[in-house]
Design goal:
- The structure is a single chain.
- The protein is an alpha+beta fold.
- Strand 9 and strand 10 form a beta hairpin.
- The protein is globular and about 60 Å long.
């Protein structure tokens, strides 16, 4: 054991030496493309580098329209075509400086994959992070926030995802009296016990793993952590409950509510590329913000390395192609491995499709605010499918996506009643271009799989061929 640990230290020191000798180079190019800014990143290659780069661009709220990825050998060469939130090229000098500082020399150097995505403002030292996962049901979020309020917890920030009848949440809390982190271990144990009881209240499916409430260490990046939590939970469901239980995680209707994704199922095809020793992954789905991060995050967490890739997202649909190997340098050769990879990517894409009506709450923050708001939602038959909660100074800036208790769209009279009770000036309805349902492409076993591979492969291989990195995979 000690010998293996010493070996890992030697490898790590060698990687650091390679990076010192070859620091990352970042170029922001506004001249080569008429419609997008090109961000070119060249650096010594290390597991997790691609995820780090994509995360930096995503956190800057940039839209990646195209990406060309190559990391064969010891070098990482990527080109990203990006625009701002309004679809324009990047002319803001501060944004360009942040890209160069975040991705340039001294930034990509020695961070392990778990810490590559930086620490969000909400996850400060003064806060306690609570991780929750369990079966979703109408009114659950209201009960969670009520428990925390009763325990004199002030909710500083939270993010909640639902998919396949499951819910995962990160809740950042402080002591309502001191506005600092909790130091009373007994109080934290009480919170975990009560929250587990609430999470188990939706039914008895899934056995002992059906609900979990835990106080975690400082979370490096909330959205990556939520992906990890839901992926681990889904894997545990398959292991504990067998194939039937696992299918529930793929979008079955549970308790009258859908699995998320608005009925839009992505096409994911995984094939052997034996000639080059890769596994070839093709993805086609409705485009949305942060899609590239979600797929790269999932591949990284499933311990796959992307050696070459092409991403095209210039219309309503997105196309992604990856040539990958497992971290142990093997391809996904078995049918079971390929199926697991397909399902993992499908779940990662679907769980971030926001389902329901978008409500925005902006008002002065106070202890118990979220408990009161979500209680009113519950009393009027609204169920939260996705939530983003944050505090900016003394102001609460919260977003909720809501459906009715059966998963159907919310009736207009219910929305107006909720707004009247909470306050029409502080709770507003917003159209969300990235949410809602869309027509699903051909299913996983349909004829779209082969045509997708042929369509993207020609573009990707032409690019990689011009770089002299591959010959053909046909």
């Amino acid at each position: 054991m000690a010998c293996g640990s010493r070996s890992n230290e030697i490898v790590d020191e060698f990687e650091k030496l390679v990076i010192r000798m070859n620091p990352p180079r970042v170029t922001v190019d506004n001249d080569s493309d008429m419609t997008a800014t090109l961000v070119k990143v060249d650096s010594a290659n290390k597991y997790g580098t691609l995820l780090e780069v994509v995360q930096v661009l995503t956190d800057l709220k940039l839209t990646i329209r195209r990406a060309y990825i190559s990391s064969d050998g010891e070098w990482f060469m990527d080109v990203f075509h990006v625009v701002d939130q309004d679809g324009n090229k990047l002319y803001d000098g501060q944004v360009i400086d942040r890209i160069e500082m975040s991705l340039g020399a001294g930034s990509l150097s020695f961070r392990a994959p778990e810490r590559t995505v930086g620490v969000e403002a909400a996850a400060e030292e003064a806060q306690t992070t609570i991780e929750l996962i369990g079966w979703d049901r109408p009114g659950l979020l209201s009960e969670v926030f009520a428990v925390l309020t009763d325990l004199k917890c002030n909710i500083e920030a939270s993010e909640v995802w639902t998919h396949g009848g499951r819910v995962a949440a990160l809740v950042y809390v402080t002591d309502a009296d001191t506005r600092g982190a909790f130091e009373d271990a007994d109080r934290l144990d009480t919170a975990k016990r009560l929250l587990r009881h609430v999470l188990r209240g939706g039914g008895g499916r899934g056995g002992g793993k059906a609900a979990r409430a835990a106080v975690s260490e400082r979370v490096a990046h909330a959205q990556r952590r939520l992906h990890q939590m839901m992926h681990a939970d889904r894997s545990a469901g398959r292991g504990a409950g067998g194939e039937d239980d696992g299918e529930a995680y793929d979008g079955a209707v549970l308790g009258g509510r859908g699995g998320g994704g608005g009925g839009c199922r992505p096409v994911v095809a995984v094939e052997d590329c034996a000639e080059r020793g890769y596994t070839l992954v093709n993805v086609r789905c409705r485009d949305r913000p942060k899609l590239l991060f979600d797929t790269v995050c999932t591949l990284t967490d499933m311990q796959y390395v992307v050696f070459h890739g092409t991403v095209i997202a210039e219309g309503s649909e997105a196309y992604q192609e990856y040539y990958i190997r497992h971290l142990d340098d093997s391809a996904a050769t078995s049918g079971e491995d390929r199926d697991r990879l397909c399902r993992g990517l499908e779940a990662a894409i679907q769980r971030r499709y926001t389902e329901g009506l978008r409500l925005e709450l902006c008002c002065e923050d106070r202890v118990g605010l979220l408990s009161d708001v979500t209680r009113i939602f519950r009393e009027h038959g609204l169920s939260v499918t996705h939530a983003e909660v944050e505090t900016r100074g003394d102001r609460a800036a919260n977003v909720f996506y809501v459906v009715d208790a059966s998963g159907a769209p919310v009736a207009a009279h219910a929305v107006e009643a909720v707004r009247a009770e909470i306050g029409e000036q502080i709770l507003s309805v917003r159209e969300d271009a990235g949410g809602g349902a869309a027509r699903s492409p051909t299913g996983r076993d349909g004829g779209g799989r082969r045509s997708l591979g042929n369509m993207i492969r020609s573009r990707s291989e032409k690019f990689l061929y011009n770089l002299g990195l591959i010959r053909s995979c046909s």
